[in-house]
């Protein structure tokens, strides 16, 4: 997880990357991190029907 943040930080600080490319790259890294989190919790849903009822 930290690897993604380190990569994004290096990319955002690079002088050879445009602002648009840095934002896109950061978004891709964030999505990759989110997918990794979902794969770790594959067997346990993030929001169960019970929790959804409690939140309403």
Task: Describe the 3D structure.
There is one protein chain. The protein is mostly helical. The chain has one domain. Helices cover 73% and strands 0% of the residues. It has 3 helices and no strands. Helix 1 (2-13) packs antiparallel against helix 2 (19-40). The longest helix has 22 residues, at 19-40. The radius of gyration is 16 Å and the shape is elongated. The mean pLDDT is 72.
Task: Summarize the structure in short.
The protein has three helices and no strands. It has about 55 residues and is mainly α. It has one domain.
Largest sheet: none
Basic shape: elongated
How far apart, in Å, are the first and last alpha carbons?
A: 31 Å
Low-confidence stretches: none
Bin the helical content: over 70%
> What is the alpha-carbon Rg in Å?
16 Å
**Count of DSSP strands:** 0
Treating each run of at least 4 consecutive H or I residues as one helix, how many helices?
A: 3
Number of domains: 1
Class inferred from helices and paired strands: mainly alpha
Question: Secondary structure elements and their pairing?
Answer:
Elements: H1 2-13, H2 19-40, H3 49-55
Name the features.
56 residues, 3 helices, 73% helix
């Amino acid at each position: 997880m930290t690897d993604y943040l380190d990569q994004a930080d290096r990319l955002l600080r690079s002088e050879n990357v445009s602002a648009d490319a840095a934002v896109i790259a950061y978004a891709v890294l964030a999505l990759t991190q989110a997918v990794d989190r979902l794969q770790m919790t594959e067997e346990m849903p993030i929001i169960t029907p019970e929790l959804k009822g409690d939140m309403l």
